[in-house]
Amino acid sequence: MKMSKGQIGRRLLGLAVAGTALVSGGTAFAAQPQPWEVTLQPAASPVMENIVWFHNFLFVLITLITLFVLALLVVVVMKFNAKTNPVPSKTTHNTLIEVAWTLIPVLILVGIAVPSFRLLFLQLDIPKADLTVKATGKQWYWSYSYPDNGKFEFDSLMAADKQPRLLGVDNEMVVPVNKVIRVQTTGADVIHAFAVPSFGIKIDAVPGRLNETWFKAEREGVYYGQCSELCGKDHAFMPIAVRVVKEADFNAWVEQAKKKFARDDSSPVAVAAKDAKAETR
User: Fold this and answer.
1) pTM over 0.90
2) pLDDT of 41
3) How far apart are CA 50 and CA 119, in angstroms?
């Protein structure tokens, strides 16, 4: 499909803007996907920084291996074809080559395994948390509660009138900057998955089970994610929006949230739900 000069210009402009934002480390670029983006979203947490480094390391390593194998194939095709080598060699063994092609791949795999296991340990070993947030996946939205901060809970639904499109929500999850946040996930109906690329987190929300992950946002801003498990017809419309603010602003938000989203455990609906849960045990 041919593009007009105007379309080409707009696409080049978009790439230029995205590149400028990447170099400058702008909050907008860090917070959400960008048009024509081919790299990982910029890191906003220590875990994601390690993921980006590991990704780049593997990309360089795979590129070098691919070029090396391609060079060998070219040498074999050019040097050992019937025209240039009419009398083929009858050599069947070469000890040095056999040792090399066994030992070198082992060393490469060890070189990959060490940072890989280190990254897995960083992701799975949850440090002492400054704040716990429970995210419950529902069809098709998220509910958040803050067990350390009182009895309040709120739903976060996609807002059609908010930007960015398909990512804006009515009630954002709010956390303080430079604090260890433990995220507990569960599902109310089917399996969902809580994922925020800039934090390097992605974990299933399974009914009847409580999974945990963590992040430490190092920059203020709004960071977006989505449910990453096929969960039904509106799977594509249950985004995640995390607003990272200063600690003082977070404390002020908590006081407002306690009043706005206060949970009444004595209400008929809450009592009925509690009784139903007790009967299933």
Assistant:
1) no
2) 86
3) 7
- The owner of tokens 């593997």 is 58
Helix (H) or strand (E) holding 228: none
Residue (of 119, 227, 223, 120) closest to 174 by Cα position: 223
Question: pLDDT at position 163, please?
Answer: 85
80: which 2 tokens?
């050992």
Q: How many CB atoms lie within 10 A of CB 189?
A: 13
- Pull the structure tokens for residue 92: 């069947």
Low-confidence winner among 67-81, 85-99, 180-194 (lowest mean pLDDT): 85-99
pLDDT in tens, 58-68: 999 999 999 99
Q: Is the residue at 116 inside a domain?
A: yes
Residues 71 and 156 in one domain: no
Give residue for tokens 């006081």: 255
Contact of 43 with 56, CB cutoff 8 Å: no
Higher pLDDT, 244 or 94: 244
Domain of residue 33: give its range. Answer: 10-39
* Stretch (H or E) spanning 132: strand 131-138
